[in-house]
Amino acid sequence: MPMTEQLTTLQRLAREQFAPRAQQYDDNYSFPIDNIQDLYRAGFNGATISKEYGGLGLGNHKGNIRQLWSMVTAIAKADMSTARCWEGHNNALMLLDRIATREQKDRWYDGILNRGELWTVWSGEPLLKTPGQKQQFGTSLTLTDGGYLLNGSKTFCTSATHARWANLLVNTAGAGGARHASCSPESVIMLACDLDQPSVSYDESWWKPVGMRGSVSCVVNFDNTFIPFENQIGEPGQFLREEWQTYWTPQYAATFLGGAQAAYDYTRDHIASQSRQNDPYVQHRIAKMALNIQACEQWLDHAAGQWNAKQTEQAKLAGNMARYQVEQLATESVQHAIHACGARALMQPSPLERIMRDLSIYTRHDNDDQLLATIGRSVLGEVHDRSFFNNA
Description:
- There is one protein chain.
- The chain folds into three domains: 3-117, Butyryl-Coa Dehydrogenase, subunit A, domain 1 (Orthogonal Bundle); 138-239, Butyryl-CoA Dehydrogenase, subunit A, domain 2, CATH 2.40.110.10; 243-379, Butyryl-CoA Dehydrogenase, subunit A, domain 3.
- Helices cover 51% and strands 14% of the residues.
- The protein contains eleven helices and eight strands.
- A four-stranded mixed beta sheet has the order 1-4-5-8. Strands 2-3-7-6 form a four-stranded antiparallel beta sheet, with no helix packed on it.
- Helix 9 packs antiparallel against helix 11 (368-379).
- The longest helix is centred in the middle third of the chain and has 30 residues, at 244-273.
- The protein is globular.
- The N and C termini lie far apart (44 Å).
C-alpha cells in the first residue's frame, strides 16, 4: 500500500473508530484494546519493522520518518492515549530492527506480524520519592544459570496490562533504569521480557492520573522474573551511547500536535454551531490556533528533513527543538480553544475537556525547562545530555 494510502486509511480508522471510543477508555482508565487490535488488522503492527521482514519499513534512517510521525498525529487527534501506546510499540520495534540479531528477529517478528503481539519499552525507575509515596521504585539483576533474575519494580509502564513483551532498560549497577542511571553507559542493558510469566504483576491502583488514562502506565513488579541471555538486545550501553531516546523525541511532539488539531476542529465546530464567526476575538483565537498548528507541522518537517538528509547530529538538535516548540504551541492552542468555547466546553463528555487533561500530563513526559536549557547548552557549545536533558 503506498504511503499516502496508508495515512488515509489510518486517518479514517482514527476518525471513525478511535475517536468514538476515547471517552469510554478515559472514563474507565482502561487500555484501548479495540484500537490496538484494529491497528493490527489494518496492517500497522509492524510500522517500524523493515520491509524485508514484512513491516512497513518506517524509521529515522529510512528517508520516511515524517510518515510515521504523521500517523502518530492522526491517532493522537482521536485519542492521545492510543497514540502513546502505539508510539511505545513502534519504539520497541525500532530497537529490534536496528539492534537485534537475525535469530531474535526470526523469533519475535512472527508474533508481532501474524498474531498482533504488542511490545513496549520500559525504563522508569525514579529514585526520588514524592510526598505520600510508599513504594521505592527500582530493579536489580542477579546472574543465574542461562540468564538473569529480575527483581523490583518499574513505573510509568505504558501498555502494562496488555503488552506481550517489554524491552526493559535495566541498570546492572543498581536502580535507576536508563533515565536515572548515574554510572557508566555500559551498566545499562536491554532485555526483552516475556510478560506472560506469573512472576510479573501489575499495580493498576497507582495509575489514577488526571489524563492519558487509557495508556495504563502503571507500576509493574518483578519477582524473580527469569530473562535468558539470548533475550539481551544489543551490547551493554548501546542504548545510551547511540542516544536512542533522541530518535523518539519528535514523536512526542507529533502526539501533542494531534491534540492541538483535535482542539482546533472542536473549536471550529463549536463557534459555527453558535454562529460566532464574526466575533473579532474568536477570529483572533482561531487565527492563532491555525498559525500554531502550521508552525508545528513545519517544525516536524524540519526535523524529518535532517534525518532524511542523514544529518544525524543536526537531526537530534532539531528534534529537541521541535519537541519544545510544539509543546508550547499545542498548549497555547488548547488555551485559545478554551477561551473561544467557554466553560461549558470543559464539561464532560466534551472532547476538549479530555484533550486538555491528556495534553497537560503528557507534556510532562519531559521537563520543558530542562529541555530548553539543554537546547541552550547545545547552541553555546557546552556539554549537554540530548537524551534526558539532565545537567551533564
